[in-house]
Design goal:
The protein folds into 4 domains: 3-41; 46-140, Cytochrome Bc1 Complex, Chain D, domain 2 (Orthogonal Bundle); 162-208 and 269-286; 214-262, SH3 type barrels. Helix content is 43%, strand content 11%. It contains 12 helices and 7 strands. The chain has helices at 3-27, 31-41, 54-67, 69-72, 90-94, 101-107, 124-140, 162-172, 186-189, 193-202, 265-270, 276-286; strands spanning 109-110, 116-117, 214-218, 224-232, 236-240, 246-250, 257-261. The chain has a 5-stranded antiparallel β-sheet with strand order 6-5-4-3-7, with no helix packed on it. The chain has a two-stranded antiparallel sheet with strand order 1-2. The longest helix is centred in the first third of the chain and has 25 residues, at 3-27. The protein is elongated and about 85 Å long.
Length: 290
């Protein structure tokens, strides 16, 4: 084959390749990949449905109240007779207009540990209405497992014992805080009891700038270096000194000596120790600091 022919073949192949690549870019991914992407973006049919017919949903609500409520609860989260939470049920989430829920409602099902759901003697129309109602609740819930929509309920969190809270405060908190010092009038400076509770539990106002953690390193020679702690492990300590220089020190056991001053350390240490009663009692006490 002559050099001229080789050049023609080479050019033709390159042009063909470019045309093919351009076609792929224009057409986009293959149908298989597109379908896979669509399925990955729509994992739960129950959360992708259009709202059901209001009359059918209302009918389903009434039937659910008679036939299902005792086991699955008024809010679908499980009832007195031990039925599962329908808002978190994988079967309900995967159901598409009754294809999975229908057979279970109609024929019953044996669950984990031998628990059983008895078959329900419902007509096809009634069964369809119950399915529509369950999907309506699931589709309009604030999030998976959230409560069904309705009027917002204002919760009263002031259920603790202020006297017990004062005792707890004196024992656990008075070393750093004072009701006549930094906490004087705190109940008038924070809008609501809920925000007050959140503030003291987290150790400060939301988005407030936290004081830095500082560290002092004492070397074997007695030389002391202090600054803002950047990193601390069993093998290394890194700090930024007052001049802005980064200093790092290798650690071997207790050498060099490392002293950390964490202003928020006590709050972090207490977080796993608080009980519900402690939180409620301290909040009830702090509300009295007007």
């Amino acid at each position: 084959m002559s050099r001229a022919m080789l050049k023609v073949v080479s050019v033709s192949w390159n042009v063909g390749t470019l045309v093919g690549l351009a076609a792929l870019l224009i057409v986009g991914p293959s149908p298989v990949h597109a379908g896979q992407q669509e399925r990955s973006q729509r994992p739960y049919p129950a959360l992708q449905r259009e709202p059901g017919d209001p009359e059918i949903v209302a009918r389903g609500r009434a039937i659910y109240g008679v036939s299902c409520r005792a086991c699955h609860g008024v809010d679908l989260r499980g009832g007195d007779l031990g039925g599962p939470n329908l808002l978190r049920s994988g079967l309900v989430l995967r159901d598409d207009r009754g294809d999975l829920m229908g057979p279970v409602i109609r024929d019953g099902q044996t669950g984990v540990g031998g628990s059983a759901m008895p078959p329900q003697n419902l007509s096809e129309d009634d069964l369809h209405a119950v399915v529509e109602y369950v999907h309506d609740v699931l589709g309009t819930a604030s999030r998976q497992g959230g409560p069904p929509p309705g009027e917002e309920v204002e919760l009263d969190i002031l259920v603790g014992d202020a006297t017990a809270g004062q005792t707890y405060f004196a024992d656990k908190c008075a070393t750093c805080h004072s009701p006549t010092g930094d906490l004087e009038g705190i109940a008038t400076r924070i809008d609501t009891p809920k925000e007050l509770q959140d503030t003291w539990v987290r150790g400060g106002a939301r988005n407030a700038e936290r004081p830095p953690i500082t560290v002092t390193v004492t070397e074997a020679s007695g030389n002391r270096v202090s600054g803002q702690l950047e990193r601390l492990s069993d093998f290394l300590v890194v700090l930024t000194d007052a001049d802005g220089r980064h200093r790092s020190f290798s650690r071997r056991g207790d050498t060099p000596r490392v002293e950390v001053d964490d202003p928020m350390g006590a709050h972090r240490d207490m977080l796993p120790l608080y009980g519900d009663a402690d939180i409620h009692n301290v909040t009830a006490y702090l509300v009295t600091l007007q």
